[in-house]
Design goal:
By secondary structure, this protein is mainly alpha-helical. It is 53% helix and 0% strand. It is built from four helices and no strands. Helix 3 packs across helix 4. It is globular, with a radius of gyration of 11 Å.
């Protein structure tokens, strides 16, 4: 199932955080994701295919998927 929302690039996701005045630490805490995973996705060190990086990419709007564990 594909969401109708346009995916963001990592640069757009960073800009969206800045526009909201939200830090990576606050974003990670709000979504229950490790801060390091959010940074790794935003800076391109991880693609967000698995685990915490996947959850971060989905929460940031960089990738479609389910961002929570059962």
């Amino acid at each position: 199932m594909c969401s109708p929302h346009r995916l963001l690039s990592p640069q757009e996701a960073k800009a969206a955080l800045e526009a909201r005045g939200e830090t990576v630490t606050d974003f990670a805490a709000r979504h229950g994701i490790q801060r390091s995973a959010v940074y790794q996705v935003l800076y391109g060190n991880k693609k967000g295919r698995y685990g915490e990086a996947h959850r971060a990419a989905v929460a940031l709007g960089i990738k479609h998927g389910i961002a929570s564990y059962p």
